[in-house]
Amino acid sequence: MFRFKHRKDEFFGMFDNAARNVYECAQALLDLLEHYEDVPNKVKRIKNLEHAGDEYTHQMLARLARMFITPLDREDIQRAATRLDDVLDEMDTAANRMMLFKIEQTTEDAKAFGRVLVKATGLLVQAFGKLHELRKPEIMQSICVEVHTQENEGDRLTQHAMAHLFEQEKDPRDIIKWKDIYEILEKATDRCEDVADVLQTIVMKHA
Questions:
Q1: Which CATH superfamily hosts domain 2-206?
Q2: Which of 2, 88, 164, 195 could hold 83 in an S-S bridge, CB 3.0 to 4.6 Å?
Q3: Alpha-carbon distance 73 to 61, whole Å?
Q4: What is the pTM assigned to this prediction?
Q5: Per-residue pLDDT tens digits for 29-50
Q6: Could you tell me how far CA 193 lies from the centroid of its own chain?
């Protein structure tokens, strides 16, 4: 029993670290969007956090492959780990697009997306911190509901950003660039919701 508890705590600790890395990446992306300077170094920092996320995912899946008894269902562990990594991938892609497209300045809508992602990923940190309290599902459920709220805000922002883009922007090249970036930022909020969905599934199984 002691050995299993140790392994359980170890696994939940790995999830905590992975979630905090995602949150740090969202903060780095928001810093890029709100303070659009030293862009190559800021994009590189986001890339480094994305690489760190890949390593966390690899460690968790490798640990999962070696464990005979797991603290959660294997498919839920795998899905939670990979969905977290998906959030990182979208944020990294958005940052890279901005440098690739030689974006000269950001928009208020892009900054708003950054703030939504910081809120959503911060909530995911809280949610993963509650994995060891699955017999008290109300707290986890309320956190996941708030992640869904942030995803809805991402949808609203997409509609606003697209409408503003096509109404105000005259250069078709800039329309194409920003449309792509906005869609990637929206996908990042969608991936946060995917993580929350996995966590809600875990809660329902263990409540």
A1: Phosphate transport system protein phou homolog 2; domain 2 (1.20.58.220)
A2: 195
A3: 13
A4: 0.92
A5: 999 999 999 999 999 999 999 9
A6: 9
